[in-house]
């Protein structure tokens, strides 16, 4: 089709362009990612980190795709595998696993609800909704449309309504959260005036989104005692800039930032409702502004929507968005690699918002698989170059589940369940055990998860003196202390310990230290527990690298 725009004399050039474009499209996405990361940087490879070792990659990919670390057996199997495509096979294996589904459940629960307390929808219902959605590989646009369309009136979509209901339907809070979570635009400072620091965020952008929501409110049904989201047929979105000396009142209909207002039908006075407002009656307008939100926002035709999810999935694996901060998408804060972000945004849209497919391609890239060790002779590498893998503090859920796996508490629970073992039953037991760890390391309720490392004294004491971690370390059938106690040779103890906790084999020096430590202690059982504690409380364990 592009050729019809070329002059006839340039037909040959047009054909060459077309064939070249086809060749680019046939190149796997992960290779195109690497090409765009290195584009225009002739010396990139000489200044970038080497590929990660198998040990480094193994621990990283488990944490990033499964939310935990591998077992010692899984580590030995992968490290012994000599197949050239073993990394690709492992990525596919993890993406198809129940652990990946649970990890995505955790990540998006925190992303969308920011650890808010239950008010109208139980967390278990919401998390099961997320779990089944990710198990089915539900497209991102469909998931968002379901969330933004749900009012909680029907049992089948009530879990999805948690996004609205547990924010108490407050339209300003919802406007701020919807703009940053789904569009990558933090419009909070545009509520009272055009953003004072970001000239591209306007007050009418804020109120265009607000107009989808300002007619909605919580309605408590007196018969069922169930609270749902309801809507009126009237109410305009008006605003005045606090910086305007004339105090001119403006208004806007519902619209996306930089988009046109939604066309609204007009009704005769008194004919605006399907169910008219009355005492203890939930009104139902003939035209719902809020019903237009999902289709206007969660669509491939919305550039901000597809850029946002592409950027967030990139940041999920690389610890930094191509746009950074992740909710500051505007012209004065361009992506570190503009062509790459556009490519990822288009690819996920063309791929019908298949998040699993995009995560796979990012994980397959050389960029993702680089080592976290800074190249020799270089003191620092700018993070926005993605030339070196960043150290990432484990998210609270990752830390909790990694501790359960490292100490063998997960294995002990599997053994205890025996024939009754099922994934839901195992998860329910372990999630209850993980809860205190998550609570200790989680950020402030109602705020985005902080990916910077800010350890507190209470967290340090929790790991060093806490009874919970000590209880997981104590010998129990099937756990790490139990396995170590059955190994006689110090070298075997060291290997099992390091593979179980740090997903690597010990160095010769570390193996010697283990042997000397065990030799110096009269109580071998206590010594083994001290060794497990030392590694689980280490900085190496606390980071994904």
Write structural notes for this entry.
The strands form four sheets. A two-stranded antiparallel sheet has the order 1-2. The chain has a two-stranded antiparallel sheet with strand order 3-4. The protein has a two-stranded antiparallel sheet with strand order 5-6. The chain starts with 10 loop residues before the first helix and ends with a strand. The chain contains 26 helices and eight strands. A hairpin with a 6-residue loop joins strand 1 (216-220) and strand 2 (227-231). Helix content is 51%, strand content 5%. Helix 9 (140-149) runs antiparallel to helix 13 (291-297), helix 14 crosses helix 15 (338-350) and helix 17 crosses helix 19. The model is unreliable at 1-21 (pLDDT under 50). Among the domains are: 1-29; 139-297, no CATH class; 392-544, no CATH class. The chain is mainly alpha-helical. It has helices at 11-26, 29-38, 44-47, 54-66, 72-80, 86-95, 98-113, 123-135, 140-149, 162-165, 171-183, 203-213, 291-297, 303-318, 338-350, 355-364, 396-407, 409-417, 423-441, 457-465, 467-473, 480-485, 490-502, 508-520, 524-536, 539-542, and strands spanning 216-220, 227-231, 237-239, 250-252, 273-275, 284-285, 392-393, 543-544.
């Amino acid at each position: 089709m592009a050729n019809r725009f070329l002059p006839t004399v340039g037909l040959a050039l047009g054909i060459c362009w077309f064939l070249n474009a086809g060749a680019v499209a046939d190149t796997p996405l992960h290779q195109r990612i690497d090409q765009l990361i290195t584009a225009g940087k002739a010396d990139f490879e000489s200044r970038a980190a080497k590929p990660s070792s198998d040990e480094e990659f193994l621990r990283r990919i488990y944490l990033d795709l499964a939310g935990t670390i591998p077992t010692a057996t899984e580590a030995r199997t992968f490290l012994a595998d000599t197949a050239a495509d073993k990394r690709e096979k492992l990525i596919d294996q993890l993406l198809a696993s129940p652990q990946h589904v649970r990890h995505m459940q955790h990540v998006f629960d925190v992303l969308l609800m920011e650890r808010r307390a239950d008010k109208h929808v139980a967390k278990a219902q919401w998390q099961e909704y997320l779990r089944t959605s990710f198990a089915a590989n539900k497209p991102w646009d469909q998931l968002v449309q379901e969330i933004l369309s749900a009012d909680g009136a029907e049992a089948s979509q009530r879990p999805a309504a948690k996004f609205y209901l547990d924010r108490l339907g407050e339209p300003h809070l919802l406007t701020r959260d919807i703009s940053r979570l789904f569009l990558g635009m933090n419009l909070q400072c545009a509520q009272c005036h055009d953003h004072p620091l970001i000239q591209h965020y306007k007050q009418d952008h804020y109120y265009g989104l607000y107009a989808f929501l300002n007619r909605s409110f919580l309605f408590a049904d007196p018969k069922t005692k169930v609270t749902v989201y309801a809507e009126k047929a009237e109410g305009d979105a008006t605003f005045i800039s606090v910086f305007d000396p004339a105090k001119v009142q403006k208004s806007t209909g519902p619209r996306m930032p930089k988009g046109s207002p939604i066309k609204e039908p007009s009704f005769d006075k008194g004919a605006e409702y399907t169910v008219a407002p009355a005492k203890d009656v939930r009104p139902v307008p003939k035209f719902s502004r809020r019903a237009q939100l999902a289709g206007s926002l969660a669509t491939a035709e919305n550039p901000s929507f597809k850029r946002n999810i592409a950027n967030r999935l990139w940041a999920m694996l690389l610890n930094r968005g191509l746009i950074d901060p992740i909710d500051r998408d505007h012209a004065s804060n361009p992506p570190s690699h503009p062509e790459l972000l556009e490519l990822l945004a288009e690819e996920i849209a063309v791929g019908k918002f298949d998040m699993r497919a995009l995560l796979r391609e990012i994980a397959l890239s050389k960029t993702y698989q680089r080592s976290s060790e800074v190249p020799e002779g270089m003191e620092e590498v700018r993070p926005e170059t993605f030339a070196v893998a960043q150290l990432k503090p484990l998210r609270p859920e990752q830390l909790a589940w990694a501790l359960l796996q490292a100490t063998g508490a997960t294995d002990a629970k599997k053994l205890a369940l025996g024939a009754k073992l099922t994934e839901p039953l195992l998860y329910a037991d372990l999630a209850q055990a993980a809860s205190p760890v998550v609570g200790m390391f989680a950020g402030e309720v109602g705020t985005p998860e902080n990916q910077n490392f800010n350890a507190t004294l209470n967290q340090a004491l929790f790991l060093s003196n806490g009874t919970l971690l000590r209880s997981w370390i104590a010998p129990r059938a099937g756990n790490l202390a139990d396995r170590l106690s059955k190994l006689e040779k110090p070298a075997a103890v060291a290997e099992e310990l390091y593979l179980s906790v740090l997903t690597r084999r010990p160095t010769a020096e570390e193996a010697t230290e283990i042997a000397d430590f065990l030799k110096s202690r009269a109580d071998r059982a206590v010594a083994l527990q001290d060794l497990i504690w030392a590694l689980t409380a280490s900085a190496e364990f606390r980071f994904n690298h």
